[in-house]
Each structure stands twice: as structure tokens, then as C-alpha cells.
Amino acid sequence: MELEQCVNFVLTKAQNSVQQLFKAELSPYGITPGQYGVLKCLWDQNGLTAKQLAERLCLDSSTITGILDRMENKGLINRYHDVRDRRALCVMITNAGLDLQEPVTEAIVNANKKALLNFDEEQSKLLKKMLSELNSNL
Predict the structure, then answer these.
(1) What is the rounded CA–CA span in Å between residue 54 and residue 59?
(2) For the domain with range 19-137, which CATH number is right: 3.40.50.1820, 3.40.50.150, 1.10.10.10, 3.30.429.10?
(3) Can you give the pTM of this predicted structure?
(4) How remote is the C-alpha of 127 from its chain's centroid?
(5) Which of 25, 26, 38, 63 could bridge 59 with an S-S bond, Cβ 3.0-4.6 Å?
(6) Radius of gyration of the chain (CA)
């Protein structure tokens, strides 16, 4: 099989390109694509636990811990022990994190448009559907 026909190679190459595009779009706000994922989850539902965030973002516990450490150092989130379970850490967004919602959402919309520039709306929906199905199959 030719390298360019290998699903892993093609997906990795596309992921790297998309990752670089999103990094560039988010860099003016001082956040990474991973940090955006956490912010988006907290904008939708503040007070999630670190475990819930890791599950939602498909990250392992050590990866989410590193992301949360860096976000807390930037003043975007605070972590508190859950009153119902002292072993769990609740993650709360700060005002600084809330202030990023509008400009960062706009940057993400722009990055998505750039990433899908060569696709019409139907092709974009189909691509996302096929990638979701690929994830479901594995």
C-alpha cells in the first residue's frame, strides 16, 4: 500500500495541518486548541470535574491535569474540591476565561471556515459525519 493511501498517514497529515491552523488562530488570545476545548466545555457547563472534562475531550488524566495547570496559571480557571466528593476537583471558569468567549469563538469559527474552504456545506457535513462514524467504529 502506498503511504498516501494509508488512513493513518492521511488522517495524521490532515490533523497536523488543522492543528497548526487552529494554533495560529488562537495564539493572539494566549490559548491552545486543548485549552479552547476546556473553555468551551466550561462556557457550556461551568463546574465540571476534571474527570468529566477529560472524558468529554477524550483525554487521559495526566494530559487534562497539565492543561488545567497551565490554564490556572493564566488565571482562566480555578479548581476546587467538590463538596460532594473531596477526591474530585471542580473546575470553575474565571472572569478572564469568560472574557475570552466571544473573541475565541469567533476565531474558532474562522479557523473552521479556513479548514473547510475547499468544501461546500454538504461536503463539510459529510466529512464530519464520516469522521464521527470512523471514531464510533473504533
Answers:
(1) 5
(2) 1.10.10.10
(3) 0.90
(4) 18
(5) 63
(6) 17
Pairing of strands 89-93, 77-81: antiparallel
User: Of the candidates 121, 101, 48, which has an alpha carbon nearest to the alpha carbon of residue 78?
Assistant: 48
List the pLDDT tens digit at each of the 138 positions of the chain: 898 889 999 999 999 999 999 999 999 999 999 999 999 999 999 999 999 999 999 999 999 999 999 999 999 999 998 777 777 789 999 999 999 999 999 999 999 999 999 999 999 999 999 999 998 887
Q: 78 - beta bridge partners?
A: 92
Single-letter residue type at 74:
K
Cell of 70: 497551565
